[in-house]
Amino acid sequence: MSKLSALIVNYATPRLVLKCVASMQQYGVIERDADVIVVDNASPDDSVSVLRAQLPPGVRFIASDRNGGFSAGINTGLAEVDSEYLLVLNPDTYFVDQSIQKALELLDTQPKVGLIGLDLVNPDRSRQFSARRFYSLMDIIGRRSRLGNLPFIRKSVASHMMMDAWASGAPFHADWVMGTGFVIRTDLFRSIGGMDESYFLYMEDVDLCARVWKSGHQVVCCAGAVLVHDHQRASVDVFSRSARMHLKSLKTFMSNYRVPLLTKPGVAGLFRRH
């Protein structure tokens, strides 16, 4: 069994996938090319032909015949994983050093830690604040409307985004971490059922972290385990297709978990009593 596999789901971004894989090779993130799995979610462009031609020969490539969403793509790749830990990456990420070892050392030494979020940064190395607390409705409103400019709502949103938690440079507990780049114990991932495919896109990472906590494991963000995330936030415009998808996924999340009006639920208060 390998220590670490990497899984990338592609949808019409083949050149970003190639850049991400090349960075893993350059910095020795993955020991063998065979430990890299790329799933194409029925991309409508030339992704399949480009990736088949240009991925390193050892990389395992799966061309799905349907686009069931990001979660479905992850689950397709998860079936092929045979490593102790799994690194899940968005295509628009890449490595610039070997600092991911900090996250792996934490998993090696802390058996209660189940999932670790990486330290996401912009290309200019400014931090993206990738750890979060579980939502209150005020946080959602603050991030989705101009009401977020009101001082008391702005304060709530800053708390939701855990901006102060990074100051010490040490790993810290987070309610959830962005699914852009994280490492999870493979056995744990399988035991909690992989990704929930009722989320086509967005909120699947929040749901995953909730289930990790429910399993008795911890979610941690590892400051200094750097992953560059070169993206444009498409869901800011409330009228955009991405925003509508985000809100649809939020509705699914709220049907499964508590989202109070003002106070953040924390881990203990997130789960509904049946």
Ends distance? 40 Å
**What is the typical, i.e. mean, pLDDT?**
93
Number of strands: 11
Percent in helix: 25-40%
Query: What class, by secondary structure content?
Result: alpha/beta
Overall radius of gyration:
18 Å
Low confidence ranges: none
What kind of sheet is the major sheet?
9 strands, mixed
The total number of structural domains is 2
Query: Shape from CA axes?
Result: globular
Number of helices: 9
Proportion of residues in extended strands: 15-25%
How does this structure look, described?
- The chain folds into two domains: 1-92, Spore Coat Polysaccharide Biosynthesis Protein SpsA, Chain A; 96-274, no CATH class.
- It is an alpha/beta fold and 274 residues long.
- The strands form two sheets. Strands 1, 2, 3, 4, 5, 6, 8, 10 and 11 form a nine-stranded mixed β-sheet that branches. It has a two-stranded antiparallel ribbon with strand order 7-9.
- It is globular.
- It has nine helices and eleven strands.
Essential attributes:
274 residues, 9-stranded mixed β-sheet, two-stranded antiparallel sheet, Spore Coat Polysaccharide Biosynthesis Protein SpsA, Chain A, single chain
Which helices and strands appear, and what pairs or packs with what?
Blueprint: E1 2-10, H1 14-26, E2 36-41, H2 47-54, E3 60-64, H3 70-78, E4 83-89, E5 93-94, H4 101-109, E6 113-121, E7 131-132, H5 137-144, H6 151-160, E8 172-173, E9 176-177, E10 181-185, H7 186-191, H8 204-214, E11 218-229, H9 241-256
Parallel strand pairs: 1-2, 1-4, 2-3, 6-11
Antiparallel strand pairs: 4-10, 5-11, 6-10, 7-9, 8-11
Helix pairs in contact: 1-2, 5-6
